Amino acid sequence: MVGLKPSDVPPPLGVKVLSAGAAACIADLVTFPLDTAKVRLQIQGENAVTGVAQGIRYRGVFGTISTMVQTEGPRALYNGLVAGLQRQMAFASIRIGLYDTVKSFYTRGKDNPNVGIRILAGCTTGAMAVSIAQPTDVVKVRFQAQMNLQGVARRYNGTMQAYRQIFHQEGLRGLWKGTLPNITRNALVNCTELVSYDLIKEAILRHRLMSDNLPCHFVSAFGAGFITTVIASPVDVVKTRYMNSPPGQYSSAINCAWTMLTKEGPTAFYKGFVPSFLRLGSWNVVMFVSFEQLKRAMMISRKNMENDCDPF
Predict the structure, then answer these.
(1) Tens digits of per-residue pLDDT, 245-273?
(2) 158, 194, 214, 232: which has the highest count of C-beta atoms within 10 A?
(3) Does the model's pTM come out above 0.90?
(4) What gap in Å lies between CA 257 and CA 253, rounded to an integer?
(5) 25, 65, 96, 146, 208 from 74: Cα distances, Å
(6) Distance from C-alpha of 125 to C-alpha of 190, rounded to nearest angstrom
C-alpha cells in the first residue's frame, strides 16, 4: 500500500497495526480542535430546536473555534480527546493496519488488485473497526458536543464515568448507538480514503510528476481527504446527530436523517463541511506521513534487533 516500493520487504502485520494506531493518535492530537468544531457545527440546528445555549451561534470553522475559546476556554477544543485517542488505537489500527492484509486475502496474494478489490477491502476493514470501537466514538462525540458553560448542565465529567453512565442509563445499546450509520460512514470513509490515496499516488508516480517522497504523500493524502469529505459528509452528520441525541429523540438513524431533511433542508447534511475537509485533509497528511515514518523506523529497529541476536 502506502510508501512501499516493489523492492521493499513488506512489514509484518504487527508493525502495520501498531504504526497505524500510533500515527492516527498523532494526527488526532494535531487536528482535534477542527474535529470538535465540526461536531459543534453539525449539531447546531439540533441545539436550537432543543433549546440548549440558544444565545450561542457558530459561524464557520475558525469562528466556531474562536467562539468556543471565548465562551468556554481553550480546553473545550479538546473535549473528548482521551476517548478520541482510545478510538484511534482501536479503530485506525484495524481499518488501516489490516487493509493490505485483507486486500491480499481477496486477491489470494496476487499483486496489483483492481479498484473493486481495493474498495471491498476498505469497506471490510472499516466495518470491522467500527464494530469494535463504536463505544469510544459515542463517548468522544458526546464530550465534543457538551458545552462548558455556567448554567448548562454537563452530561459527563470524565471518560470512564461517561462509559459507566451510558451503560447504566442506556444499556449496551447506548454504547453501540449509531453503529449502523457509523459503519456506513466509516466503510465509505475507509474505502474512499485508502483507495483514492492509492490511486492518486500511483497516478503521480506513473506520470512522473513527483518522486515517492514527502511532497507526493502530502498531495495524495490531501486529495484523498477532499474526495472522502464530499462522499461521506451526509452520513457523518447523521451519525453525529444520532449518537449525541438523548434517548427517545430519534427512533432510528433513518428517522434522524428524515427529521433533518424536513426541518432543516438538504443543506443540513453538509453542515460542518469546511471543518470536515480541513480536518480530514490535515489528518490524512499527518497520519500518512507519520505512518510511513513509524513503519520505516519499526522495520529498521526490528532488523537491528535481528542482527544483534544473530551471532554470525
Answers:
(1) 777 788 888 888 899 889 888 888 888 78
(2) 194
(3) no
(4) 6
(5) 20, 9, 31, 14, 44
(6) 8
